[in-house]
Design goal:
The protein is of the alpha/beta class. It folds into two domains: 16-135 and 289-311, Aspartate/ornithine carbamoyltransferase (Rossmann fold, 3-Layer(aba) Sandwich), CATH 3.40.50.1370; 137-285, Aspartate/ornithine carbamoyltransferase (Rossmann fold, 3-Layer(aba) Sandwich), CATH 3.40.50. The protein has twelve helices and nine strands. The strands form two sheets. Strands 7-6-5-8-9 form a five-stranded parallel beta sheet, sandwiched between helices. It has a four-stranded parallel beta sheet with strand order 2-1-3-4, with helices on both faces. Strand 5, helix 6 and strand 6 form a beta-alpha-beta unit. Helix 1 crosses helix 5 (137-151), helix 1 (16-32) packs across helix 11 and helix 2 crosses helix 11. The protein starts with 15 loop residues before the first helix and ends with a helix.
Length: 320
């Protein structure tokens, strides 16, 4: 299969086969990260701009490292201290960057649809690194990769997504990807943090009982409370939220055996997740971070027009 998309804007528009193709390609790049020399020349001569209009640690560093592992040149843009603070528009900023002969733009922006808007107005390849409440496709892909690495395939795997679903772009990308790969998704959280459009996603189970979900699920993906995106009235207090929806050791003792614990980060320790759970034996949170580099290598490679996954083994082998 050849990946024919010029951009990666979300998982909603991708087919099951396209998602699996990205994950299969990421598996090949994951092997590269285990070598003494963790680099291949796949994107030599390509310039990737990391345009982050919101704060980020894992995603920005992961994309930068992924690009460098592929031998691409990178340039970093942050809205802080830039002409954006003088009133320059998103389009003008990116067109000026593109005039410097940038080939790919990885963008994070607070406005939903920003990546789609760019893809229609610039010649560069655009990758969405998170846009408003909409999607965070590479986080969704790395979560899928981490689960698939454990279970082999996701058909019938029971996944609970817990927390602030309404404000979470990570939740939306996870939902689209999991449903397309055949997982059984349960959304857990207070009614005030559930989006209105759940029925459109294919999710069939929603509950406000965390204990019930943990007893039956094989994976629990704990979301951060998006406090910066909330207005008042969503929650009585953080203490009340932690009491009812916090994934803690007491609840984990009653959970299904060997349940996989995930979190996209950054974590509000002691609120949505207990430190003992985040750092415990069931946690794959740091594995998610490592897998994120391989997944983003795959996305950069495929969006640029790289070889099919079936040919990746021989291509990588030539550059050991």
């Amino acid at each position: 299969m050849t990946f024919r998309r010029q951009h990666l804007l979300g998982l909603e528009d991708l087919s099951r086969n396209e998602i699996l193709h990205i994950l299969d390609t990421a598996r090949s790049f994951r092997q590269v990260l285990e070598r003494p020399v963790k680099k291949v020349p796949s994107l030599r001569g390509v310039t990737v701009c990391l345009a982050f209009y919101e704060a980020s640690t894992r995603t920005r560093l992961s994309f930068e490292l992924a690009a460098k592992r592929l031998s691409a040149d990178t340039m970093n843009f942050s809205s802080s201290g830039s002409s954006v603070q003088k009133g320059e528009t998103l389009l003008d900023t990116i067109k000026n960057i593109q005039a410097m002969k940038v080939d790919m733009v990885v963008i994070r922006h607070s406005s939903s649809g920003a990546a789609h808007y760019l893809s229609r107005n610039v010649d560069a390849h655009v990758i969405n690194a998170g846009d408003g409440f909409h999607e965070h496709p590479t986080q969704g892909l790395l979560d899928l990769y981490t689960m698939r690495d454990r279970f082999g395939n996701l058909d019938g795997v029971r996944v609970a997504i817990v927390g602030d679903i309404a404000h979470s772009r990570v939740a939306r990308s996870n939902i689209w990807g999991l449903v397309k790969l055949g997982a059984e998704v349960t959304l857990v959280g207070p009614q005030t943090l559930m989006p209105a459009e759940i029925a459109k996603t294919g999710v069939k189970r929603v509950t406000n009982c965390l204990e019930e979900a943990l007893e039956t699920c094989q994976v629990v993906n704990v979301l951060r409370l998006q406090l910066e995106r909330m207005t008042s009235g969503y929650l009585p207090s953080l203490r009340e939220y932690a009491r009812i929806f916090g994934v803690d050791t007491r609840r984990m003792e009653k959970a299904a055996d060997k349940i996989m614990v995930m979190h996209p980060g950054p974590m509000n320790r002691g609120v949505e997740i207990d430190p003992a759970v985040a750092d415990g034996p069931n946690s794959v949170i740091l594995d998610q971070v490592t897998n994120g580099v391989a997944v983003r290598m795959a996305v950069l490679f495929l969006v640029w027009g790289g070889a099919p996954a079936s040919e990746m083994g021989s291509e990588i082998a030539l550059h050991k």
